[in-house]
Write a structure and sequence with these properties.
With 175 residues, the protein is mainly alpha-helical. Helices cover 53% and strands 0% of the residues.
């Protein structure tokens, strides 16, 4: 696997992936380590900044256009921004129980859930194929009626009313 698909992606996607990858790893580390230490506070600040960058950058990614360029996953981004603010406020006023609940929700909702939705539903350009190809080339519908050997870059097709904007096929470069 190479970084070529990421480097060829729009800037918003590059920023998003660059922020969410360390946020996922750092978040897991923070959740498993002891709390309240100076290291926890420092890593927590870095993690929260990464989460905010991840959420803000998602508003510039419009692969699934359901409502004026936005999709249900953008609701998670809004929740992440509000949750980040509330987690910081709870910690500052000493409500550690609420802080823990919000941060766990941010991690499992904003990273784990959003990541699962993304990897299970949207095109997987990194491996050069669509995860869930649907009828007439629409990955958001059930079924698979595409000829897998067909060059989608030459003639991308979408089902009528398909909200997907990009169905290009990028052959894998690591084979």
């Amino acid at each position: 696997m190479t970084l070529e698909p990421l480097l060829g992606a729009p800037l918003a996607v590059q920023i998003h992936v660059t922020a969410v990858t360390p946020a996922a790893l750092l978040g897991a580390y923070i959740l498993l380590r002891s709390k309240g230490t100076p290291l926890h506070r420092l890593l927590g600040r870095i993690w929260m900044a990464l989460m905010v960058v991840t959420a803000v950058s998602s508003f510039f990614i419009h692969e699934l256009d359901l409502l004026y360029g936005f999709s249900p996953i953008h609701l998670l981004s809004i929740a992440t921004l509000f949750g980040s603010w509330n987690a910081i406020a709870a910690a500052r006023r000493g409500d550690i129980r609420l802080h823990k609940r919000i941060v766990a929700g941010l991690y499992f909702g904003g990273i784990v859930l959003a990541g699962l939705i993304t990897f299970l539903h949207w095109p997987d350009h990194a491996r050069g194929r669509l995860h869930r190809r649907g009828m007439d080339g629409c990955p958001c519908r059930g079924g698979d009626r595409l000829d897998p050997g067909r060059n989608r870059a030459a003639s991308p097709t979408r089902a009528p009313g398909c909200p997907m904007k990009s169905l290009e096929f990028r052959p894998p470069t690591d084979i």
